[in-house]
Amino acid sequence: MSRIQCPRCLRPHSHCLCPLIPSIDSRTRVLLLQHPSEVNHALNTARLAALGLNNAELIVGEVFEDLPALLNQSGYRARLLFPADDAQPLQAYTETEEPLLLVVPDGTWRKARKMLHLNPLLAGLPRVTLAEGGVSRYRLRKAPGPGALSTVEAIVQALQILEAPVSFEPLLKPFEALIEGQIAAMGEETFQRNHGPR
To answer: CA-based angle 41:45:47, to the nearest 5?
Structure first.
């Protein structure tokens, strides 16, 4: 028998995160393109980001038929937050008149690359990148490399750069509560054995 879920945050009612989810305005519009395999993931951080940002939209899929309309939103310049040799640092956009439409693929690196491959319009967007050396608070997962962040962490870092001095840290509150809940459920001993310092 499955537990009753909150229809908003998709967590079991007993672990609902909605009271911790902020409601933050941003000049930057965030478009999250989520791979279907992430929807039911216990740590669905893209959903948390979309719920906490008033100027964000979350779309689930692998191929996005309405991508032209999504990317050509009046008053915004679309940029893909994804690494590439020619990706520009987000700091280059802090003084621009026209706000960004920050397009963020959500999935494993392999699945995100597949989404780009299946959506040439997406792959063709100019890319932007975060400053190197970001440290993830995602203590339950081994990062694939230095600077690897969860989706919500990457969005917070991007918005902190683009919209300083506005703070987007409140977006991380439900994320941190989610991690603490997972650690509590597995027990400190199991957490230390599997995720503690080596």
So the answer is: 90
For 118-158, write each residue's pLDDT tens digit.
999 999 999 999 977 655 555 455 544 545 688 999 999 99
103 and 79 Cβ atoms separated by less than 8 Å:
yes
Q: Please, what is the average pLDDT of the chain?
A: 86
Structure tokens given for 108 = 């494993």
- Structural tokens at position 147: 């600077």
Q: What residues have CB less than 8 Å from 175, skipping those under 6 apart?
A: 43, 45, 48, 137, 150, 152, 153
CATH number of 23-195: 3.40.1280
Burial 21-40 (b: 16+ CB within 10 A, else e): bbebebebbbbbbbbeebee
Q: Is the pLDDT higher at 187 or at 141?
A: 187
Work out the number of other CB atoms within 10 angstroms of the CB of residue 195.
16
Q: Give the pTM.
A: 0.87
| Extents of the domains making up the chain | 23-195
pLDDT digits (tens, 9 = 90+) for 50-77: 999 999 999 999 999 999 999 998 999 9
CB 47 within 8 A of CB 40: no
